[in-house]
Amino acid sequence: MALAEHLREFRNRLIISAIATVIGMIAGFFLYQPFMQYLNAPIEQLNQQTDREAILNFGGVGGPFSVMVEVSIILGLILASPVWLYQLWAFITPALHKKEKGYAYGFVIAAVPLFLGGCALGVLTLPSAVFALTAFNPDNTANVIDANQYVRFVLQLVLALGLACVLPVLLVGLNMIGILPGRSLLKAWRWVIILVLLLAAIVAPGPDLMVMFYISAPLMALFFLAVGICLLNDRRRAKKLAKQQTAYDSSSIKATSDDELRTIQADTKD
């Protein structure tokens, strides 16, 4: 397609994604109260199980409204993830062959549950993260937790784990269309482990190693699963290319033999 047609299609895909996100934001607005109750539950549990005192504080008159808008936007992005992930790959698929389009659809089918699963993992690890972060509080002191910072921390935790779980599927998708070899991924496994552990330490800092394990173990498992799939696909592609090359060489030899036979027959007639 021409550049103008590409831009027009990108605009249409973006509009569809925006509409889905707005609908998700409306649903997120109605989910705001139960979502905030869940976020406040670890703080109440902290007060009950320890001698510390923690309270969620909304600074300023417009603080609750700004938090509600931010939560609604992020929940809208999460709820609309099946739509915008599909639109992302639907924009790429016109440039792919028929078989590669099947890979793209497979990416969407795999990416959506993994993204939602990563978000769920972030939500489930929230209580442990709250306990770990407030463990450094001195005795006989209180935690007045700013609601904006707390909600932003939770949303970053949820989105970071959601996107991290989608990344291995993206690597497999790039391998399927021949951009990223599996051996290149395998060579980078040490750096990946370091980055995953670093991400786990940033997302859930503190002395509780089990929280880091809950976060890092699924991400590492997904990465090495993606590497295995990419290596198998590279082997399959190499066998296919070798078979095609053999067939091409055989046809070339046959064509050369036919030409030589015709030349001999022409010389015999002369």
Seen as an oligomer or otherwise, the chain set is: single chain
Largest sheet: 2 strands, parallel
Portion of residues in beta strands equals under 5%
Strand order within the widest beta sheet: 1-2
Segments where pLDDT lies below 50 for 5+ residues? none
Domain count, please report it: 1
Structural class estimated from helices and strands: mainly alpha
Radius of gyration (CA) equals: 27 Å
Fraction of residues in H or I helices:
over 70%
What is the strand tally?
A: 2
Terminal CA distance: 56 Å
Shape: elongated
Question: What series of H and E elements makes up the topology?
Answer: HHEHHHHEHHHH
- Number of separate helices: 10
Structural features:
270 residues, mainly alpha, elongated, membrane, transport, proton motive force dependent protein transmembrane transporter activity
Give your account of this protein's structure.
The chain is mainly alpha-helical and 270 residues long. The chain is 83% helix and 4% strand. The protein has ten helices and two strands, in the order H-H-E-H-H-H-H-E-H-H-H-H. It has helices at 3-30, 32-49, 63-79, 81-92, 98-124, 126-134, 147-176, 182-187, 189-203, 209-269; strands at residues 53-57, 142-146. The radius of gyration is 27 Å and the shape is elongated. It starts with a helix and ends with a helix. The model has no long low-confidence stretch (mean pLDDT 77).
